[in-house]
């Protein structure tokens, strides 16, 4: 039997923290928004006040024009810091391991504890702090890859496939489609960890976010813009672009590119074929099936609420394990090219 936590209310456009009249990752402008991270399906401009980590506020300022320096409109909350909201609600931001600045939000009210994970993963990522499990009564988890078929391979093997393709094709470049916030920077950092120290070339849409990561202490090595580089100079090089640029006019300036894409969805062969991807790299910033189920078991909440993805299979897993659970119907949340 799932209890009714009346003070935390899932509504179509977000999770409403009723006593504080605040919202978690609302899909439309509200007076007070608590934002888990900077991806567009969770973060939006137009709120009266935005509460998030300093890194997420910086990302939102860059992407959506949020006034991160305006103390009236933005409230930075560091990891581990607790903010008292109206109505006697305490909010604490805890690392989620998804992208730079990403956070779970622990809400405490009237002796009850609710954790909203936002998006998260459990694997190490050199660009952001790791996920920290938090004890709670209600655990509201994403389920982007909430099907047993989604079991992400070790990232080292995927990076090796990328660099091996370079060595095997010296007259071509490897063009990697990667989401501009988080995936691109993690990919670059992991390539560096693999021992690749040559310049990595960027589509113009990637440059500002990579600089923001560097400004926050993430070492990405030497990065260069593709613009103005002779075609021949890109032979044998890695080029990173948004997924939307993989097959457009821009990519035609490159020397016979090996089209790659870094995404958890590359586990599905049909998705790779639809995008004409020659080198699918199964690299995700979301928890896979094993991580989702292991996290629920580790946190061991009284109730699990499931959202943002394939709720039904994870709901069934909870039920088979005698775990109280429910699926939430929220709108405005799409899987990005992860």
Q: How is this fold's topology laid out?
A:
Blueprint lengths: L7 E4 L2 E4 L4 E3 L7 E3 L14 E4 L1 H11 L9 E3 L5 E4 L3 E7 L7 E7 L2 E5 L21 E6 L11 H14 L5 E4 L5 H11 L6 E3 L1 H12 L7 E3 L12 E4 L16 E5 L6 H6 L4 E3 L7 H11 L3 E7 L1 H10 L3 E4 L11
Parallel strand pairs: 3-4, 4-5, 5-6, 10-11, 11-18, 12-15, 12-16, 13-14, 13-15, 16-17, 18-19
Antiparallel strand pairs: 1-2, 2-3, 7-8, 8-9, 9-10
Spatial sequence of strands, sheet with the most strands: 7-8-9-10-11-18-19
Strand content: 15-25%
Q: Roughly how much helix do the residues carry, as a percent range?
A: 10-25%
In whole angstroms, how far apart are the ends? 34 Å
The number of helical runs is 7
CATH homologous superfamily of the largest domain, by name? Ribonuclease Z/Hydroxyacylglutathione hydrolase-like
Shape: globular
What name does CATH use for the topology of the largest domain? Metallo-beta-lactamase, Chain A
N-to-C SSE string, H for helix and E for strand? EEEEEHEEEEEEHEHEHEEEHEHEHE
Domain count? 2
Structural class label: alpha/beta
Arithmetic mean pLDDT: 94
* CATH A-level architecture of the largest domain: 4-Layer Sandwich
Q: Give the biggest beta sheet.
A: 7 strands, mixed
The strand count comes to 19
The CATH class designation of the largest domain is Alpha Beta
Which stretches of 5+ consecutive residues score pLDDT under 50?
none
Rg estimate, integer Å: 20 Å
Domain Metallo-beta-lactamase: 12-179
Pfam families: Lactamase_B_2
GO molecular function: exonuclease activity; ligase activity; RNA endonuclease activity
EC number: 3.1.-.-
């Amino acid at each position: 039997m799932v209890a009714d936590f009346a003070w935390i209310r899932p509504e179509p456009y977000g999770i409403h923290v009723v006593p504080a009249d605040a919202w978690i990752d609302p899909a439309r402008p509200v007076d007070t928004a608590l934002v888990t991270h900077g991806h567009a399906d969770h973060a939006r401009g137009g709120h009266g006040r935005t509460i998030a980590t300093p890194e997420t506020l910086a990302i939102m300022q860059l992407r959506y024009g949020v006034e991160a320096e305006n103390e009236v409109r933005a409230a930075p909350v560091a990891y581990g810091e607790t903010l008292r909201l109206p109505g006697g609600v305490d909010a604490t931001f805890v690392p989620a391991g998804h992208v730079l600045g990403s956070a779970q939000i622990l809400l405490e009210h009237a002796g009850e504890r609710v954790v909203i994970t936002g998006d998260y993963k459990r694997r190490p990522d050199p660009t952001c702090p790791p996920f920290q499990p938090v004890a709670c009564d209600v655990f509201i988890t994403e389920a982007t890859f909430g099907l047993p078929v989604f079991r992400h391979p070790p990232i080292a093997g995927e990076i090796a496939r990328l660099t091996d393709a370079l060595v095997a094709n010296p007259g071509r470049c490897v063009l990697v489609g990667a989401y501009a916030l988080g995936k691109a920077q993690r990919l670059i950092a992991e390539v560096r960890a693999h021992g690749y120290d040559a310049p990595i070339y960027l589509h113009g849409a990637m440059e500002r976010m990579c600089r923001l990561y560097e400004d926050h202490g993430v070492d990405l090595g030497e990065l260069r813009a593709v613009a103005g580089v002779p075609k021949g100079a890109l032979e044998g090089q890695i080029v990173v672009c948004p997924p939307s640029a993989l097959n457009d006019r821009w990519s035609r300036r490159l020397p016979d590119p090996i089209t790659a894409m870094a995404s958890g969805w590359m586990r599905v062969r049909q998705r790779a074929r639809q995008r004409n991807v020659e080198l699918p790299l199964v690299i995700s910033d979301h928890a896979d099936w094993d991580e989702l189920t292991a996290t629920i078991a580790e946190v061991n909440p009284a109730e699990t609420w499931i959202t943002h993805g394939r709720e039904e299979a994870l709901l069934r897993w909870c039920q088979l394990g005698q775990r109280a659970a429910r699926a939430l119907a929220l709108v405005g949340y799409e899987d990005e090219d992860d």
